[in-house]
Amino acid sequence: MNSHPMKEQVIVVTGAGKGIGRAFVETLISHPDLKTRNLKLCLTSRTLSDLTQLKDHAERREIETEIVDADLAKNPTLVLEKALSRFKKIHALIHCAGVGRFGDFLSLTEDDLRYTMATNVEATFLLLQKAYEIMKSSPEGKGLRGQIQVVTSVAAERPFPHSAVYCMSKYAQRGLLDVMRGYGYQDGIRILDVRAGATLTPMWGEVEPAQEAKMMKPEDVAIPMVEALFASERASIEILTIRPLHGDI
Ligand SMILES: NC(=O)c1ccc[n+]([C@@H]2O[C@H](COP(=O)([O-])OP(=O)(O)OC[C@H]3O[C@@H](n4cnc5c(N)ncnc54)[C@H](OP(=O)(O)O)[C@@H]3O)[C@@H](O)[C@H]2O)c1
Q1: How much is the pLDDT for 1?
Q2: 174-178: long-range pairs with CB below 8 Å, 24+
Q3: What's the rounded Cα separation, in Å, for the pair 68 and 78?
């Protein structure tokens, strides 16, 4: 792993309050190289109490932290505006916020469609477009100017039953990332598609013990994401597929 002593890194994390996003933040602020990195965090999700807890944890580790409780579907770029106004720059966007509505193909409703698309597709596009614009405007020369990670899913590469709307939204995210990567090569902005498999998070609601035993824990996804964030600036890790040991459930 490369280390960049005291180089400031402003990292925005969406979906920070729960699940994979929360595990990402917890992994980051417990990282053994923390002392050599001057991290600043801007964390967002819809539930303020989740964010307050995380902010306290980060500040105990002397990491300046801004929190923004907002619905991305209603205001997708607010978190970027808050991060810029406090820290003046954004080096990385880790986009973990996402929703899933599942059901038989014929039972999925127009509301399921609109709810899922608003967050997973429309907000993702507007958030990533703005983040990219901010990173591209950074005057940091020819090297790495920014990085964007999005937790898509293995449902971005293969179909699952009961997941027509969810798969559609995840394939759409994948399409966006594939297009953006072409721009990223020109601009020194690396784009990582994190294709996670079944991970035990609040998104699943109640889970039977037998199913739980087959699933990953959020940190199983978060740890490689943090390693990718700190990977050599000469390289771009593009797709990280992480599924349970015995395959998809
Ligand atoms: N868990 C899995 O098995 C799995 C597998 C593959 C991919 N993924 C993907 O990984 C991402 C994270 O999933 P997760 O399992 O960690 O879910 P989770 O435990 O439900 O956490 C999702 C986080 O995103 C936030 N969020 C959701 N919708 C939002 C919105 N409209 N505006 C702002 N914040 C919003 C939630 O905030 P509030 O709680 O405050 O609402 C929460 O903090 C999602 O994109 C999901 O599709 C998950």
Answers
A1: 43
A2: 176/124, 176/125, 176/128, 177/150, 177/152
A3: 8
Task: List, in order, residues 6 or more apart from 50 with CB less than 8 Å away.
Answer: 16, 17, 18, 22
Domains of the chain: 8-242 (3.40.50.720)
Confidence band, pLDDT 50/70/90 cuts, at residue 5? very low
**CA–centroid distance, residue 14 to ligand 1 (Å):** 9
What confidence tier does 4 reach under pLDDT thresholds 50, 70, 90? very low
Kindly state if the Cβ of 146 falls inside 6 Å of ligand 1: no
Nearest protein Cα to ligand 1, atom 44: 98
116 C-alpha to ligand 1 centroid (Å): 11
> Which tens digit of pLDDT belongs to each residue from 16-25?
999 999 999 9
pLDDT for 12-50, tens place per residue? 999 999 999 999 999 999 998 887 889 999 999 999 999
Q: How far is the CA of 23 from the centre of ligand 1 (A)?
A: 12
In DSSP terms, 148 is beta-bridged to 93, 191
Is residue 99 lining ligand 1, measured as CB closer than 6 Å?
A: yes
3-state helix, strand, coil in the chain (%, to 5): 45, 20, 35
Which is the closest atom of ligand 1 to the Cα of 17? 43
